[in-house]
Write a structure and sequence with these properties.
Elements lengths: L8 H16 L5 H8 L3 H13 L3 E8 L8 E7 L2 H8 L5 E9 L3 E5 L11 E9 L13 H11 L20 H10 L7 H8 L3 H14 E7 L8 E8 L3 H8 L7 E5 L2 E8 L2 H16 L5 E9 L1
Helix pairs in contact: 1-2, 2-3
Length: 306
């Protein structure tokens, strides 16, 4: 465990109130958060700093929706030496994200072009590759593991209607300045805007309009990890399923932010646990969901580094 912070239940509830406001309205001012939560404005500012410093809250992040003129591709691969592959992939211009895994695959990568994977040094096999949906982070609604497990049990029922997270909009109209704004705000929409606008000579009216139109072209989500994200174990599940939204609705009830996106018939779910006991509960839940028909098979890999 690392980067620990002593968080009392009382303080955690205040953090959670602030996160809830930011998740619902990513650009909400600190004054408005204070009015909505009853937490003094000076405390809201201090708590936000602490939440970011200890990775209790991340973002809000921006995830661009697929469009006729914009696609990202996810690949789940096995390399002979994942350490060398992980380092080498960082140098490739089309690779936007990569993680080092341990399990049925050892490298996850997201790229802005459909990569010819056999050309990569040390590549062995790819268990799945395809255009991905926009990433979706459900809202955390409870903080207690046992209570979340109880709520999940109440939610479970045999799914019937086929669903996917993949939705493609007709076109993404962003120009060069708007893509610059995306590159600067994609990891946290709450960073100070004026230094960015001055550096890139972008008018405030431009960013104001861009912010207002973001929901048309993106998902915007904050994430919440009550004990700090570095203190969790991240597990990646690749489900072969016709019921992506139903799986997301159930697994999204865990007491920390889960990460989801669709790739064809597969749903990637990155789920976070704190203890071996929680991990055992999660594996039991996964097998229960299979029995109920939520998916036909899954592959599993522990996420090590990203």
């Amino acid at each position: 465990m690392s980067d620990t912070i002593k968080v009392t239940n009382k303080l955690l509830r205040k953090f959670f109130k602030i996160y809830t406001q930011v998740y619902q309205t990513p650009f909400m001012s600190q004054n408005q958060i204070a009015r909505n939560t009853g937490i003094p404005r000076s405390s809201v500012s201090r708590y936000l700093e602490e939440m970011y410093e200890h990775s209790i809250m991340k973002g809000p992040q921006i995830f661009v929706k697929p469009a006729q003129n914009y696609h990202l591709y996810a690949s789940f691969c096995q390399f002979k030496d994942p350490y060398i592959a992980y380092k080498g992939l960082k140098r490739l211009p089309h690779v936007l994200y990569r993680s080092w895994n341990c399990g049925k695959w050892n490298i996850t990568l997201i790229s802005d072009t459909l990569m010819n994977l056999p050309l990569l040094k040390g590549f062995q096999t790819c268990i799945h590759q395809g255009a991905k949906s926009a990433t979706y982070l459900p809202k955390v609604t409870m903080l207690d593991w046992d209570k979340s497990m109880k709520k999940i049990q109440q939610m479970i029922s045999t799914p019937k209607k086929k669903t996917t997270l993949y939705e493609e909009i007709p076109i993404n109209p962003w120009d060069e300045q708007e893509w610059i704004l995306y590159s600067k705000f994609k990891d946290n929409t709450r960073v100070q805007a004026f230094p960015i606008l001055r550096k890139h000579k972008i008018r405030y009216e431009t960013v104001e309009k861009w912010f207002s139109e973001l929901p048309q072209y993106t998902n915007i989500h904050a994430s919440f990890y009550p004990q700090g994200v570095l203190n969790y174990f991240a597990s990646d599940f690749l489900f072969q399923s016709d019921f992506h939204r139903q799986l997301t609705n159930v697994l999204g009830l865990l007491p920390s932010t889960s990460v989801f996106f669709s790739v064809g018939q597969y749903l990637l779910a990155r789920l976070f646990v704190l203890t071996k006991c929680e991990e055992n509960d999660l594996i039991s839940l996964i097998h229960q969901l299979k029995e109920k028909g939520y998916f036909t098979q899954f592959r599993y890999a522990r996420a090590l580094f990203e």
